[in-house]
TrEMBL record:
Coiled coil: none annotated. Gene3D superfamilies: Homeodomain-like. This is Fis family transcriptional regulator. It comes from Bradyrhizobium quebecense. GO terms for molecular function: sequence-specific DNA binding. It comes from the Bacteria.
Length: 86
């Protein structure tokens, strides 16, 4: 089995909500807030694995790391991998 086949597709990570259920959740939120929530939820669903989350989000690992650093500086709790160095 190749590594690529173990990475979940973005569709596999999304809850099965219809568009008319998702849009009301987004109304009133800024693009930054929506992006932050998407990043945090994707990290959580990838068990804190930054490489997998970056791949699912279509970001480089460096970009994801910079976003995580920004969120942490703002006092936001970011999901961490259980295998991350302490």
């Amino acid at each position: 089995m190749s590594y690529a086949s173990t990475v979940p597709s973005p569709e596999a990570l999304l809850p099965s909500l219809a568009p008319n259920e998702i849009v009301p959740l987004l109304i009133g939120a800024t693009v930054d807030e929506v992006e932050r929530e998407l990043v945090l939820q994707t990290l959580a669903r990838c068990d804190g694995n930054r490489t997998r989350a970056a791949r699912v989000l279509g970001l480089s690992v460096r970009t994801l790391r910079n976003k995580i650093r920004e969120y942490s500086a703002d006092g936001i709790d970011v999901p961490h991998s259980e295998h991350a160095a302490a």
